[in-house]
Riboflavin biosynthesis protein
Amino acid sequence: MKIDKSKIKAIAIGRFDGLHLAHFELIKRLGENGALVIIKDSKPKLTPKREDYLKIPCFYYKIEDIKHLSGEEFIQILKDEFVNLEKIVVGYDFEFGFNRAWKAKNIKEFFKGEVEIVDEFFLNKVSVHSKLIRSMLESGDIKGANELLGRKYFIKGEVVKGQGLGAKELFATLNLDVKDYFLPKEGVYATRCMVNNKAYKSVSFIGHRVSTDGEFSIETHILDDFCDVMATEAKVEFVKFIRDNAKFTSLKALKEQIKSDIAQAKQALESEN
């Protein structure tokens, strides 16, 4: 549905990747007729579609289309597109224009409406940033990443055909083709898997199948009763990192390890309730 930009009176500008706790400090200052102006690049995202989390309009601007502009030219584009704009909200570290030469305080030079610069946001004395959340996910610190996000990190993907080995020799899994999402560290996780709006306890693997064919895969074994053979898409929420990816000398050894993974995942998911 096309949104009438003339109705927008306030915008918050930024990348908004992750839509974490600090981002919501900006969003709550927008008021009723607010929107996000999202600067988009080509990197995998913590939140590929911000609309999945928000009830306010989101407008995307590709970094390639605006990175050559001066600060004044960039703000002029926004004034031209949002003709009734009254307020701009940015974070304390916002930079814009060619070579990011203009700072948050410079917006007031080009915009005569209200400019609100939001202070750095801390959670338990930790400054909340998307970069830190990515770093936590890369190291397997799911608990820390989820705390800064204010929710559980998740990925979504299409259910695709896998090796066929799981159901025959190991444990049946849903195999996912995930695009655009930032992926956590390779390894095994306690997770929750959403299929057709129903949540299931699960244990998930992300990484190269070093014990079999060496291919990269994202696989989820559902721990609850599950018979939805028509599943076409699944969402995986990360609860706890269980172990690193590892190579096993036989399928028997791998199966024994998966049994242990399942037990740990069940314990983690039950203690969460």
The domain at 152-272 is CATH 2.40.30.30 (Elongation Factor Tu (Ef-tu); domain 3).
